[in-house]
Structure formats: C-alpha cells, structure tokens
Amino acid sequence: MFSRWTLLTTLRRYDRDQAGRDLLAACLVCLLLVPQALAYAQLAGLPAVAGLYASILPLVVYALIGASPGVALSFGPVAVLSLMTAAALAPVAAAGTAAYLAAATTLTLLVGVFLLLMGLLRMGFVANFLSHPVISGFVSGSALLIAVSQFKHLLGISADGLTLLQVLPALYMQLPALHLPTLLLGLGSLALLVLLRNLVLFGVPEALALRIRQLSALLLMLLAMALGAALQLEVYGVRVVGTVAAGLPPLGLPNLELGLLRELLPAAVLIALVGFVESVSIAQSQAMRKRQSINPDQELLGQGAANIAAACSGGMPVAASFSRSALALQSNVATPLVGVFAAVLMLAAVLGLAPLLQHLPQAVLAASIIVAVVGLIDVSGLRRTWRYSPQEGIAQLATLVGVLLYGVEAGILLGVSLSLLLFLWPTSRPHMAVVGQLPGSEHFRNVERYQVVESPSVLSLRVDESLYFPNARFLEERIGALIAKRSSVRHLVLMCSGVNQIDASALDTLEAISERLHSAGVQLHLAEVKGPVMDRLQRSEFLQRFGGQVFVSQYQALRTLDAESTARAMRAQ
Amino acid sequence: MFSRWTLLTTLRRYDRDQAGRDLLAACLVCLLLVPQALAYAQLAGLPAVAGLYASILPLVVYALIGASPGVALSFGPVAVLSLMTAAALAPVAAAGTAAYLAAATTLTLLVGVFLLLMGLLRMGFVANFLSHPVISGFVSGSALLIAVSQFKHLLGISADGLTLLQVLPALYMQLPALHLPTLLLGLGSLALLVLLRNLVLFGVPEALALRIRQLSALLLMLLAMALGAALQLEVYGVRVVGTVAAGLPPLGLPNLELGLLRELLPAAVLIALVGFVESVSIAQSQAMRKRQSINPDQELLGQGAANIAAACSGGMPVAASFSRSALALQSNVATPLVGVFAAVLMLAAVLGLAPLLQHLPQAVLAASIIVAVVGLIDVSGLRRTWRYSPQEGIAQLATLVGVLLYGVEAGILLGVSLSLLLFLWPTSRPHMAVVGQLPGSEHFRNVERYQVVESPSVLSLRVDESLYFPNARFLEERIGALIAKRSSVRHLVLMCSGVNQIDASALDTLEAISERLHSAGVQLHLAEVKGPVMDRLQRSEFLQRFGGQVFVSQYQALRTLDAESTARAMRAQ
After folding, report:
1. Which of B266, B339, B449, B517 could form a disulfide with B63 if both were Cys (CB 3.0 to 4.6 A apart)?
2. Per DSSP, what are the bridge partners of residue B463?
C-alpha cells in the first residue's frame, strides 16, 4: 500500500544524475558482494552459487517494496544469518545433499513469511527486545564462532560443528591430517588480505588505499581463480568450490512438508528477528544522517518479500549488510533503485563467473570470511558497557559466551532472558529516599544528598520504582522500620512521582500498610500520583478505605498536613 | 543463633497462665489436626499414619527453632503440599509401595535442606516473586483439583491422575464400576459435614455452632471409626484405611540416591517455596495484629529444620496451616510452645488411634478433604483482581487453569512468568506526557489533564518509566514526532522524575536522540534526574557529550532556558 507510493515518488523524480550515481554505487557494491556471496554460501553449507542467486531477485523485490526513500541498504547474504542457517539445517540434513538444499529453501521461505506477517501485524517493536549489549555480544560471539568454523578450510581437514565445544575438539583430533599445500594457500591468502587492507601503513595515499581495501576480497579471489585454473590446484588435493551449474537461478517453490516446517520454525523466527534488527539498525542510522525517518513495519514487509523471493530462487536467507551498505553510502548512492542495478550486475556475474568458480580453493574463501568477521568483534563496546553498567556487561558477556559454547539461538535467548531479569532485579529492591523541602522552593529532595528541611510530624518518603509484587513486601518492611524510629510522626506521605504502576499485590500491601500505620497512630497519604495510576486506583476501594488524602504535590501535602498539626497542637495548649 | 535467644526469652517469662492457655489451644488444634493429618496423608498417597507422624517431631523442632515470639503457627501436613507431594512422587514410584514411601522421605528432606539453605543465605525475599493473584489462582486451582481427585474415593473406584485432563476421563471410564455402598457412605458423610458446619442456620447458638463446626471433621471420623468397627464395612467391599503399625514414628535417614535426588529437586524447590509463602503470610498477618514483626529468614531456618525432622520420622512435607493457625489464635494461644504441647498430644493420638484407624472408610476421609478445600476457592478475590487490573486477572486465571490442566508446578511457573511479562509489557510502551507549569506554582502537569502554561520555545516531556531497551526506540520515535510538529521549539527538557533506571541501550538512544535534535536545531536537557541514575550517568561520557544541562527541577529548567531565549530574542531585535 504505502510502499507503492514510495516507489512512485522515487520514480517520478528520477533523473539521469541519480541514475548515474546509483549505477556507480551498484558497481562498487557488487565488487564486494560477489566474494561475500560466495563465502557466506560456503559458511551456510550451501554451494557457492547459491550465494550469487540470493543476490539477484531479493535485491529487486526489496528495492521495489521495502526500501524507505532516503535509505540504500545493500541486501543479500550476510555472515551471521549464514552461520544461523548452518546451525538450523545441521540437525535436519547433511550439508551438500539435496535434502539440505531443499531445507535451506524452506527455511528461507519461513523467514520471509514470518517477517511479512510481523509487518502486516505491525509488530516491528518486537525487535526492541534485543538490547544493544545483547546484540553486541551476539555479533562478537558469532564473529568468533564463524572465524573458528573456517579453520578447517584453512587446514584442509574436516571438522564440523556448530559450537566451540564441537569445533575445537574436532579440529584437535583432525590436526594430524592437515594438508600442507592448503594451509600454505590459506595463510598466504590471509597475509595478502591483511596487506591489501592496510596499504595506508605503507605510504599509499589514503583514498587509493581505501579503494583497494574495499576491493581486497575481490582481488584475492580473482587471483585465486586464475591461479587455480592455471595450476589445477585440485590435482594436488586442495579442495575447490567445484563444478557450478551456470545459468539463471532455478525458480520454484520450496518443500513444504509439515514436519520440516515445524522443525525449522524456531530457527526461522530467530533468523528473521536478527536479520530485521540488523537491517533496521542500518536503515535507522542512514535515515538519521539525512534527517529522515524510516517505517519499521514497511521494512518488515520489504524484508519478508525479499526472503520469499530468495526462497523461490533457490537461495538462502537475506538481510542488509553493514559493510556493503556503508560502501553504498560512501559511493554517494541516490535512491533505493541501486538494488535493481546491483541485481542486474549480479545476474551478469552468475553467467560469467560460474565457469571460473570451479577452480577457486575453499581455503581462499575461508581466509576472506575470517578477515571480514574479525572486524565485527566489538571489544570496545564490551568495555564501555562494563563501565556504565556491570550487570548489562554480564548479559553481554553471557550472550557472547552462550553463542560460542551453545550456539547462536541459545546465546540470544540467554542474553534476552538475562537482560529482562537484570532489569527486574533492582526493581525488586527499589531505591527509596526520605525527602525534605529544598529551602525557598516547592521541591523535595533526598535528605541524605541535599540540605533540606524536614517536618517533625510529617514523614515524606519517595519511592523510586513502580510498586508491584516483587517489591511490595520490601516497601512494607522499609516503612515499618522508618516509622519505628520516628515516634513524633503522625503522617506518612508517599511521594509517587517515580511510581509508574501499582499492581494488585502492591495494592493489597498498601492497604495492609495503611491499617498497620493506623494502629500505630499514623495516617498514610499519597502525593504526585500520576494520571494513569490514579485512574486505576479509582477502580479499587483503596481510596475510600485508606482514610488519607491524595495531594497533587508533595509541597501541597506538607502545607496542608503541617497546618493541621500546628492547629491541633495549638488547640491542645 | 538468634533463634535460641527467642526461645530463651519465651522460656524465661513462661508462667502457669501462659502454659494453661497454650495447653488448651494445643488440645483444640489437635482435634482438628488428627482428621486433617489422616486425610492429607491419603491425599499425598501415603499411609494415613504418616500424617500423624508428620505432626509430632516437626512441631517440636519448629517451636524451638523457627517460631517468632508473637506468632503461633500450627505446623504439620497441609492440603496443597500433600497434593504437590503426590504429583512429585507419581513419576518416581507407585503409591503404596516401599519405594514410594522412601521417595516421600527423600522429597521431604530436600524440601527441608532447601529451606535451611535459603535461610542461611537470607533469601527469604525470593518468596516475594509469587504475586498475590498467582497465589490466589494457585490455591483456588489446587483446591478444585484436590476436590476432584477425591471423587474416586467417594465412588469407590480407581481413577488416578494429577490433572483434570487425567482425572476426569479416568473417572468417566470407571463410572460403571462405582460401588454403591461406598457412594452412599461418602454422600452421607458430605451431608453430615455440611450440616455440622452450618448448625447456626438451624438456631444453634453461635458460639456452640462455631465449636461444633471446628470439631465437625473429628466427630465424623469418630462416628465412622465406630461404625466401621461395628459393621466391619470392609466385608461389604468398602475400602478402609487398613492395618496401621501402632507405635512411635520410625526414626531413620532417607534414601539419598543421586538419581532420585535430581529427579525430585525441582518439585522440592516449589514445595519449599509454596510452603514458605503460605507460612510467612500467616505469620505476618498474626504478627501484624499484635503489632510485632517477623524475621522471614528465621522462619526459613525453622521451617527447614521442621521438614528435616519430618523426613527423619518417616513423614511428609510440612508447613503452617491456615485453618489450624486461625483456630489457635482464636483459642487465645500464648506462645509458640503450643507446638510442643500439640506434639505430645499427637504422640498419644498415634498410640491410641492406630488400632481404630483400620476400619475408617476412605470415603469418609475424602468427604472431609472435599469440604475443607472447597472453602479455599477464592471467587471474590478473582473478581476483585479483574476489576482493578484485568491483565493480572489473566495471570490469576492462567495460574488456576494451568494448575487444573497441567498440574501445580506448571501452573505456578506459568503464573509467575506471566506476571513478570505483564509487568514488563506496559514498560515497553511507556506513558509520556507533555507537561506545562501549573499557574502560580513550581509544578508541572500533563497538558491534557490540567490547565497549564506551556513555553513556545521549551518543550517539557515527562517520561513515566525507566528507560531501557524495550522502550528506547519508542522514546526516539515519540520525540521525533513531537519535534516535527513544533517548529518554534529550541529546547527539549526530559523530566526524569519517573525514570528509575537508564540502561546501556537507552543511553545509546539518548545520544542518538541528542545528535538528531542538534541537527534539527534543538538542544536536549534533563531535569529531576534521581541520585542513583545520575551517579551512573556520570560514569559514561554522555553528560560531557550531549551539550545540554541537567536541572535540579523542571521549574529551574524553564526559568533558565526561557530567560536565555528571551535574551536572545531581544538581542536579535
């Protein structure tokens, strides 16, 4: 609906200048996309060409349906989703079999349908439950796991596994079988990549060095393909990508067996959420630069459709890539139509590259994957979180370690649960402050932090948390202790500026507190109760029963109650 | 440690008057405890005498170690824990076997050790995570489930099961086999109980009617034992309690096989928590009447020791009983030593009653269980929760239905998770209000609820929730929308009186918001930031980077910023 309007708006204003900028950006993106597509397909356990296929139709569909006008995401295969795909498919079928390919297609379809449904139900907010520390821990953990999972290709051995606990022992067992030519090729590729990415250190001008850095993976692969074709490396036992069926991606519907769908569904949901969070973060940071905003629900529709397109063209799950989107932005991209140009270029690449691919050594792909993902390990983010909030640092570290030891899904679930529990934990023992009046103002502040005036007969207590079942008894104990120490107090005013909810348990507790205070000769009052909380209190019998007043401000409360006390004291004299 | 002091204090002041009151209360409690102990043992799938055994040693131990001075809890078997015991033991062994008895002892030991550990670690607060609606739903559901589980005894058939889904079909299948004499006996017992409990309706004076009501279960059982012995009911096919080994409870250590321990641990944890919550609630309500307070950690130690004692005397898990504790309080009990008196009386009961028990029909026990638990079904509590807070009503109902359909443990876990999620849900879409100054005061209120004054150049936004990952993006969107509509705004002041935490994700978002506002020519400021939140912000670089000020109050912010704007406007003229 609204998506078509966006496209129309873009097309109506589209001119030659914009087209030129989009085409240039598309060329640059494709130079990065080709090697990434090949490598990530290998990471997902799929034939290299599947990565190329996944970089055609989905790009067109996303450009036409999803893209917000000011945003130029580069869709296609991404490292983390490829790792998650391999983890999801491993229990279902053996990599390399036809069943594995069929299951990959089914998984991609599920991802697409789930994203589409979320978009139609306007559920984009669900992604908010992945906190920044969890995402950072997850990305770092995945990057490490991906890097380690590629060691087998560098060593020329077989060591499968989805977690460090599986991969490391397998690597150790197979180490004696390592293939020296493959290892030399792999280490050489790594060294070449590191060199090409750091030419600026050797005095190459910055702009040129940056360009070479962006093309480094492609340069390496072209070199490797040429070397492979010239030397026939497979004859020496070096594993290569092997024969690739040239031609267009096969169009067709995936396997929809119910048992398979059920088995893949949980993984599909997580892949969809992770892909969405990654893409939306990129989109949002791009939109912010241009002072525009994005529509997360429309993004969901576009990403869902793109994944369905990927499923129908024999591909793998797709999302926006950090590195390629950044490159497109640097290249002064104009509109989302860059995706259409890139798709056409990728189509040409499939037709042209397929014959060359068969001699490309897997060790070279592994080297380019390792170099790409190592940059994602976010050590400074970890340190920053630790300093600001150690418990969130724990959630971040738990996610990272969880991903490494138990896999991507377990790591994310652990991180999200831990984040929620760590948020809940302090709410169960809330901060409370006895407050007094700031002299000369109507404001009340913590008696322990400010020089304030307290009334002898009125105790003002500020509760810095919603009142709900885990902290209700805590409030009761705290008030009991405070009152026990202050014999002259006749009124207790709860300052509710920080109370955003009062649940049924806390309401019961407030009634109990009020009764207990009555029998100690103290009247409970409330002040600064927020509108939504007050609306709900009025639906209970508490306000009639507790005998106190609800003051609009703490200042009002003190003025009224202090005056009463003084009047009573004067009458008593 | 502190527990011994409590006992010493009690003993030092103990006089003849107190002893007399305690003895009388103990007699009355035992008249209720004997039939309950027999019935709850049947409910737990244990021999009737196990209930009596569990009412001796644990009472002494709790009186000496746990009891807070002003509190007189009646320890011993309780209905809900007996149901949970049956559910925990069913997968481990068949009821009636020696393995079942051994497992029951092991379970009780685990419960005791867990409570003791919680007490030593001062973890009494954990019980707070069971919200009132969850407890109410759990008690009502258990009561219903207990009542239905006793129908088989009324009908004289076999229909085992731990949930309604298991019990109801079993009852239906076995219905044709019903034993008419048993049914008549059961219905007759029910009718007699209902009659004895409602004599006040037939003109009996209130005090006498109350006394008879309290003794009704005992009267019924004595009558049934006499009838059983006279008529030899078992000859007619009526199932009876059967031969009971008279004598003292067997002292000895339980089976400590590792596999069994691991299998029973989750159930033991829940039994311990539920027993603790029940006991602490009773203790707290009693202490409140006497204007005293209890020490939850000491209660944990006492209850742990009591359960270990129960395990060592061949018994079943014990806790405080609502009905018996209320009776003790009505009987003007003086000190916790009532438990010691009651234990001595129960010892006599074991020795004297054992021979009579063998002719007691199970249907009579079933009738007394049903009448006892039906009173626990809390319909008015359900209605009250629904009115105050429908979503907590859902948690309550889910717990109730969960207990009925999936068992006690699943019900509680469902209820607790749902309660936490329902608390989190509104925090993910927090209430925010644009606020203005109440004329003639320093206070700021929602512009939609109050007649307030707004500044054209300063936008004041109050956020009624802690800022954390699920709501961070929501804040960003909301601020974007607000600023877009107000072109004259130069300053945005976030009023943080309701912000009790700011997590790392929200901090990132605040930085992003601040940058975005800068580029729109608006400066972000904070006001009324609480001490603990400020302490943490100072550990980040946000305060240096965001370029705004942190005001002690919203009033201060407005005065400063409005003055600046006016000065700038005057300079411009």
Report:
1. B339
2. B432
Is A472 within 8 Å of B426 when comparing Cβ atoms?
Answer: no
DSSP string across A379-396: HHHHHHHHHH-HHHHHHH
Query: Which residues in chain B touch residue A429, judged by CB atoms under 8 angstroms apart?
Result: 125
CB contact under 8 A, B388 and A540: yes
Token pair belonging to B541: 């670089």
Which value does ipTM take for this structure? 0.74
Q: Are A522 and A513 in contact (CB under 8 A)?
A: no
Distance set, CA B323 to CA A121, B291, B340, B439 (Å): 51, 22, 19, 57
Grouping H, G, I as helix, E, B as strand and the rest as coil, residue B320 is strand
* Residues in CB range of A10: below 8 A, 6 or more apart: A69, A335, A336, A337
Confirm if A61 and A311 have CB atoms less than 8 A apart: no
DSSP H helices, A313-444, are: 322-330, 338-357, 362-374, 379-388, 390-406, 408-428
Fold exhibited by the domain B432-572? Transcription Regulator spoIIAA (3.30.750)
Q: Which residue has the tokens 């079928």?
A: A93
* Shortest CA distance from A281: residue in chain B: B473
Q: Tally A–B CB contacts below 8 A.
A: 183
* Helix count and strand count (H, E) for chain B: 24, 8
CB of B441 closer than 8 Å to CB of A442: yes
CB contact under 8 A, A504 and B389: yes
Backbone angles phi, psi at A76, to 5 degrees: 140, -170
How do the domains of chain B map onto residue ranges? 2-10+20-377, 432-572
Helix H segments across A429-503? 469-485
Q: Which residue has the tokens 């034992």?
A: B225
pTM, to two decimals: 0.72
Q: Among B265, B251, B252, which Cα is nearest to B110's? A: B265
